[in-house]
Design a protein that fits this description.
The protein is an alpha/beta fold. The protein has three domains: about 5-160, NAD(P)-binding Rossmann-like Domain (Rossmann fold, 3-Layer(aba) Sandwich), CATH 3.40.50.720; about 160-315, no CATH class; about 345-430, Antifreeze-like/N-acetylneuraminic acid synthase C-terminal domain (Type Iii Antifreeze Protein Isoform Hplc 12). The chain is about 40% helix and about 20% strand. The chain contains 16 helices and 16 strands. The protein has helices at about 5-10, 25-35, 50-60, 75-80, 95, 110-125, 135-150, 160-175, 195-205, 210-215, 220-235, 250-255, 290-300, 320-330, 375-380, 415-430; strands spanning about 15-20, 40-45, 70, 85-90, 105, 125-130, 155, 180-185, 235, 270-275, 280-285, 305-310, 345-350, 365-375, 390-395, 410.
Length: about 425
């Protein structure tokens, strides 16, 4: 039975998948609206450090004030949900403890918060869907393993570019094609000097957080997304930071192919991005050695080959997250997970940094991310981008220089730091 049929059946039975949401910003509030209109699914609990944001979102959805309960303790929270009320809370971790919820969606984009929420969900055997790719590329393999042992699903979300790219990857594999390159469009050339201040005017005009827009413009978000694709599929960045050349959709299968065939790749099996007319789409460049298959692909208007483009012209971000929620709850399946550390998003200084200075968040004026093959980043003792926030500079770091264990110390009090130590130890044992 298809997902929609399952959801329809739940609706007919007077039941629904009950979702908890952490983070009620642009992505989170959008997801709440989507689940509100989706049969067989509803966001019943929302956590945010500012309770006014979920209250405003629920009001915008037409939920009467009498149907909303604000509570930060498990007992009153459970009572509210069992009575069919909507719950608003400041306590993100509490959602993991609520038996009345079937799944939790993490949508803060903050590595530390994402790690704590995911850990607690897994501890309580509750499905957790990450709209927080930053956490996934930092400690995803560990969280995936723990979820398997706990009997719940840990997954990144459909709708995010890694999720929809994984769909193309799976489609290609299910037809017997080799994936030569998997990638996304980026609607602008990376500006490594982007800061919240330089992005403020544009961000405010778009209703965005300036720091979030800065993280898009400086490439950190793209690096994180492509690392997630890499860790889920085994495909690698061809060069640090990838090529990121300008190519429109008709040219993708001419550009993102091996050099011996006129392209830019030094190897097959890569992740990359294009700054041409591709965004908001994603793509997979595929090939087959079989002459009959090539003949058939030409017949189906896919071009002369030997390389073909599978292209999805959109990704709907939080709007598509309902698919991952349903897959987790109904089928017990993940959309996309980091199974191993194939790639690492290393931290690069956005400005000259002096000893004693504390690094800001992703998208700040301090740091940006660049994706490397994991072994290369590990050999350079790179500080993962997800561990940089709140850490301290211990030696002079020049603008454009990598933050490493020799010049930078992550904050050891961070929970995600502890999880990463455990993950590193496990991966070392596997090697």
């Amino acid at each position: 039975m298809e997902i929609y049929e399952h959801l329809q059946q739940l609706e007919e039975q007077g039941e629904a998948i009950r979702v908890g949401l952490v983070g009620c910003g642009q992505m989170g509030s959008g997801l709440a609206h989507v689940t509100n209109q989706t049969v067989g699914m509803d966001t019943m609990a929302i956590s945010d450090i500012d309770v006014n944001r979920p209250l405003a979102a629920l009001e915008e959805m037409g939920i009467p004030e009498s149907e909303i309960v604000v509570a930060n303790d498990v007992g009153p929270a459970e009572d509210a949900l069992r009575a069919g009320k909507y719950l608003v809370t400041e306590d993100a971790v509490m959602l993991a403890k609520l038996e009345s919820l079937d799944a939790v969606v993490e949508a803060t984009g903050l590595t530390e918060v994402g790690a704590r929420v995911a850990w607690n969900c897994i501890l309580h055997s509750k499905h957790v869907i990450m709209l927080n790719v930053e956490t996934d590329v930092t400690v995803g393999p560990l969280l995936h393993r723990l979820a398997q042992k706990s009997g719940c699903v840990y997954t990144a979300a459909s709708g995010d570019e890694p999720g929809v790219c994984k769909m193309l990857y799976n489609l290609a594999g299910s037809m017997g094609f080799e994936v030569v390159c998997l990638g996304k469009g980026k609607n602008n050339v990376i500006d490594f000097d982007a800061t919240p201040d330089s992005c403020r005017e544009e961000a405010e005009s778009k209703g965005m957080n300036p720091k979030m827009l800065s993280a898009f413009k400086d490439g950190s978000k793209t690096m994180v997304e492509l690392a997630a694709m890499s860790n889920a599929t085994g495909l690698v960045p061809d060069v640090p930071g990838m090529h990121g050349v300008k190519a429109d959709v008709p040219d993708l299968n001419k550009v993102f192919v091996p050099q011996e065939d006129g392209g830019i790749l030094s190897q097959r099996g890569c992740v990359d991005y294009s700054t041409g007319k591709v965004a908001p789409g994603v793509f997979a460049i595929i090939t087959s050695p079989d002459p009959r298959i090539r003949k058939d692909m030409q017949f189906y208007s896919m071009g002369p080959g030997p390389y073909y483009t599978l292209y999805r012209p959109y990704h709907l971000c939080a709007i598509e997250t309902t698919v991952s929620i349903a897959e987790a709850v109904i089928y017990g399946e993940s959309t996309i997970v980091s199974k191993n550390m194939v790639s690492e998003v290393a931290t690069i200084a956005k400005r000259d940094m002096k000893p004693g200075e504390i690094a800001g968040e992703i998208g700040s004026a301090d740091i940006f991310g660049r994706t490397y093959i994991f072994d290369e980043a590990h050999a350079q003792k790179a500080i993962p981008l997800g561990l940089a926030t709140g850490g301290k500079v211990i030696k002079d770091i020049a603008k454009g220089e990598m933050l490493t264990e020799e010049n930078f110390a992550p904050d050891p009090a961070m929970f995600v730091y502890e999880l990463r130590k455990v993950q590193d130890a496990q991966l070392a044992m596997d090697a």
